[in-house]
């Protein structure tokens, strides 16, 4: 029988001031630098990104493929039968509620931004010309970059954290604690503290990347709806603050608030997809191209996952695949903890395979419908979204142009705006919850962080995105934030995976 979560009492020795204050001070310092020296800050970030992505690209790719293969291994091995909780315990949430919370916590509103537009970025890349035609390849890479390997990162760590929390009953909800089976006493020393500081910094970097990337689209949607010309930067900041209020309100109502918001978000999301598929006039093309792109992705999966472009003829993997694997790595700090938390009562196998079915399935459907709708219009000659993007590099404007071609375009814009806010709110209330747990030395399984700590994290998550918006960072520079933060986190992910195998093997012998 699960006890009702209780509010943690604030005591001085409960709060981990180092993990709470050091990231706060780093973020404040970065915000000041981005505000005061926007151009120079972007230049430095870009130089570091180039060094890591260009020199150590194979490092990111190898870990991505390795983690995916590892997820398949543990799902179908003896470890797959382990229940994340008591051996007779049943799942706390229905599959739909569980899947909704997992899906919305893992992707945020970026999925809508990229579903509409990612094929445009690839269609204008010389690598696609090397491979063949836009029809054959521009819709393959979005499916590849957002499906198996990304969710592999999430699900491997989710079962490791779920095992740590629900089976081993550990009361330190931190990255370092998941490494204890290998690190032993060093978990409580400098090495463990360093791992936790890296994890919190990566969490904030991932938050900044995703918030800064898609919120300008929401600003453009509002200007389009009201035929206004409000300053995009100002409007984006207002949207960030409103979204912060929504996810703060949801978080302070606990898991019940998060689950209600997650289900509402999924309903809105699939309503948008259904409308585009049924009324956009491209249903046959969407289905056939989607089916073909799935087949081509599966057929060429290992080639796509290991392509490094050693002669740098286009630098495609450095610009995209490596960025995406880094992007998922920094998101791995929060999303897997949350997924592991809500997966209590499910087996390791159910968590991994269910996550692939709901998470990958929903993601792929989004890219197939929204991406192939606009690509169908482009290739049929009914519109020219590529030229719109090439003329001024405004991807947000290209997405607005895509939506204008749909019937009842204002209705679609409203639905898109509300869905994006719901996605952001659902993602960031879960991230703020995990960040709040990080602020404690120890937190029992049925304890919740104090509301003031949760409120602090809700505000902290919004600061760096606002600074990046003010600094007018390009997409490349926003990608750089993730690539830099992911470099050390990748090693920690490998360490956690190895620790899980060691601890789970020991657990099976104890049974």
Automatic annotation (TrEMBL):
It is found in: Cell membrane. It holds the Pfam family BCCT. It comes from the Bacteria. The chain crosses the membrane at residues 15-37, 57-76, 96-116, 148-167, 194-214, 234-252, 264-287, 322-340, 352-375, 395-424, 452-471, 483-501. InterPro entries: BCCT_transptr (IPR000060). It is a multi-pass membrane protein. Keywords: Cell membrane, Membrane, Transmembrane, Transmembrane helix, Transport. Belongs to the BCCT transporter (TC 2.A.15) family. This is BCCT family transporter. It comes from Ruminococcus turbiniformis.
């Amino acid at each position: 029988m699960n006890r009702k979560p209780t509010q943690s009492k604030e005591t001085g020795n409960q709060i981990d001031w180092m993990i709470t204050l050091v990231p706060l001070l780093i973020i404040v310092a970065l915000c000041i630098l981005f505000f005061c020296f926007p151009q120079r800050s972007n230049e430095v970030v870009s130089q570091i990104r180039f060094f890591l992505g260009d020199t150590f690209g194979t490092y990111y790719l190898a870990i991505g493929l390795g983690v995916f293969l590892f997820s398949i291994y543990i799902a179908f091995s003896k470890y797959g039968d382990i229940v994340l909780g008591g051996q007779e315990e049943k799942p706390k949430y229905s599959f739909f509620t569980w899947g909704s919370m997992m899906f919305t916590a893992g992707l945020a509103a970026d999925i809508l931004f990229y579903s509409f537009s990612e094929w445009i970025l690839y269609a204008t890349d010389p690598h696609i010309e090397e491979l063949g035609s836009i029809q054959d390849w521009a819709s393959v890479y979005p499916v590849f970059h957002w499906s198996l390997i990304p969710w592999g990162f999430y699900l491997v760590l989710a079962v490791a954290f779920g095992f740590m929390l629900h089976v081993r009953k550990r009361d330190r909800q931190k990255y370092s604690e998941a490494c204890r089976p290998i690190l032993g006493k060093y978990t409580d020393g400098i090495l463990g503290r360093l791992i936790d500081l890296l994890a919190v910094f990566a969490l904030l970097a991932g938050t900044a990347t995703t918030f800064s990337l898609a919120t300008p689209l929401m600003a453009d949607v509002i200007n389009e709806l009201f035929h206004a010309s409000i300053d995009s930067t100002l409007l984006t900041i207002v949207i960030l603050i409103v979204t912060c209020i929504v996810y703060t309100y949801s978080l302070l109502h606990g898991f019940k608030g998060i689950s209600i918001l997650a289900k509402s978000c999924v309903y809105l999301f699939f309503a948008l997809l259904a409308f585009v598929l049924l009324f956009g006039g491209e249903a046959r093309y969407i289905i056939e191209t989607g089916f073909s792109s799935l087949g081509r992705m599966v057929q060429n999966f290992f080639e796509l996952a290991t392509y490094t472009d050693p002669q740098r003829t286009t630098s495609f993997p450095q610009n995209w695949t490596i960025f995406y694997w880094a992007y998922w790595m920094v998101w791995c700090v929060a999303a897997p903890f949350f997924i592991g938390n809500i997966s209590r009562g499910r087996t390791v196998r159910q968590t991994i395979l269910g996550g692939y079915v709901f998470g990958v399935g929903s993601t792929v459907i989004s890219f197939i419908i929204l991406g192939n709708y606009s690509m169908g219009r482009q290739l049929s000659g009914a519109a020219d979204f590529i030229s719109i993007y090439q003329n001024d590099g405004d991807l947000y404007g290209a997405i607005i142009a895509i939506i204008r071609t749909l019937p009842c375009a204002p209705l679609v814009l409203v639905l898109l705006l509300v869905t994006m806010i719901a996605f952001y709110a659902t993602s960031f209330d879960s991230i703020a919850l995990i960040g709040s747990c990080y602020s404690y030395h120890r937190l029992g399984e049925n304890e919740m962080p104090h509301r003031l700590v949760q409120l602090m994290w809700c505000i902290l998550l919004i600061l760096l995105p606002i600074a990046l918006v003010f600094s007018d960072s390009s997409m490349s520079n926003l990608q750089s934030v993730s690539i830099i933060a992911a470099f050390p986190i990748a090693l920690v992910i490998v360490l956690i995976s190895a620790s899980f195998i060691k601890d789970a093997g020991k657990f099976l012998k104890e049974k």
